[in-house]
Amino acid sequence: MLVIVGALVVIGSVLGGFAMAGGEFHSLVHPSEIVTIVGSGLGALIIMSPIKVIKDLIKGILAVLKGAPFSKKAYEELFKAMYEMLKLARMNGLLALEPHLSNPHESSIFSKYPSLMKNHHAEAFICGTLAMVVDGTVTPEQLPEMLAVELKAMEDEHHAPLDVLGKTADGMPGFGIVAAVLGIVITMGSIDGPVEVIGHKVGAALVGTFLGILLSYGFIAPIVVNMEFYAKAELAYFKTIATIVMGFTGKSSPKVVLEQARRGVPADVRPDQAAMEAALREVG
């Protein structure tokens, strides 16, 4: 929502300033310039990107438009779900977790927490990692390195779409210049025409430069930065899960494990200690 609001502010500010200076909106509407700039930028993005990166980029942009789901409530639900899992394993043994890990969609624990159920990536991360602990595939000593490798791979996957979109943003002013040069070439063909016609064509050419710079610095580059924040928020969420799972393999009590994980949560979404205790009391 904030992304949309920000985009409307950018558009409103540009058009408002243009109108205040006495400009007429129809003089900014030149479809040929839009086709040249947007088409060139899109084509360059496709050329530089593997299919997977394009898919990840589309998912990332849609996620940014929806807003990050890693809220304080999402962390509270994560802590409550993991607390139930840790208590169950502590009371009934590791094998008691197997039905919940093998079929999380029918789990009586996961089904209580909507934000966790909706995040299929996080759900798979929890189940896959805990399953290896339950069946003894990895030892407690091996687990930290394995989780670090997986988190590093996740971070690298986040960077790929950001890189291609950032390079596209850098190229948009250049494509604006291309559109402007084409406009000047067309103008040269009518150089002996009426002044009004020449002025219209020169104005159209300049609009190309204007659109290229506006799309780069007003829209695409800010989306890249927002996607970076989203990626960091998602990585922090998964690091919290990793901290809990590593604590799970130790001898600490569930509450101590969760408190260690809570302290690593970003401050703006970190549940305070009182809220954490109340949430765990709800679990029982």
Radius of gyration over alpha carbons?
26 Å
- The unreliable regions are none
Question: Which H/E pattern describes the elements?
Answer: HHHHHHHHHHH
DSSP strand (E) fraction?
Answer: under 5%
How many alpha or pi helices? 11
Annotation keywords:
single chain, 284 residues, mainly alpha, 11 helices
Notes on the structure:
The protein has helices at 2-20, 31-48, 51-66, 72-92, 98-102, 114-118, 120-134, 143-188, 195-248, 254-263, 273-283. It has 284 residues and is an all-alpha fold. The protein has one domain (30-283).
Give a brief description.
With 284 residues, the chain is mostly helical.
List the helices and strands and how they pair.
Elements: H1 2-20, H2 31-48, H3 51-66, H4 72-92, H5 98-102, H6 114-118, H7 120-134, H8 143-188, H9 195-248, H10 254-263, H11 273-283
